[in-house]
Amino acid sequence: MEIAAIFARLREKFGEGIIGLQTENVDPWIEVSPQILPEACKFLKDEPDLAFEMLNCITAVDYLPETGGRTDVQKGRIELIYHLTSLRFVRRLVLKTVIPRWQDNETGRLPQVPTVSHIWPTANWHEREIFDLMGVYFIGHPDLRRILCPEDWIGHPLRKDYQMPLEYHGIPLR
Description:
Layout: H1 3-14, E1 18-22, E2 29-32, H2 37-46, E3 54-63, E4 66-67, E5 70-71, E6 77-86, E7 91-100, E8 112-114, H3 123-134, E9 137-139, E10 167-168, E11 171-172
Parallel strand pairs: 2-7, 8-9
Antiparallel strand pairs: 1-2, 3-6, 4-5, 6-7, 10-11
């Protein structure tokens, strides 16, 4: 089944919650609204003729625009990219959901998106990594806590506006 046919199935089921289809990239992708992400993922996994039973990974990209030659930390977005595989049909699919860098555009309030860890258990680790390094809060995650940085680390090191501290518990970092 081609990605256009998968897009059509999703659009038929979820309407405007399926935002778009991009086929010009090396890895074509379907954009899904964050609000319907878990339902769309469950549909992709459970439908017998789709059977995307494997989540390979979830990645996050921080897009921080420049305005007037200066970086604008209030604007921008974070894209979450879900790489899925159907072992039964030997096909891959990329889903993307876009969220603002800050919830309600209020600096410091982490953006939120529903978890898919109840659909694919492997999402547990990927979502924890994204929470730790990018500062995305996954609603409904069973154990959302830091996975790479110490629990008392301040900030999210892979955000483009992250400021590395000079020291951590008296240990120089620069």
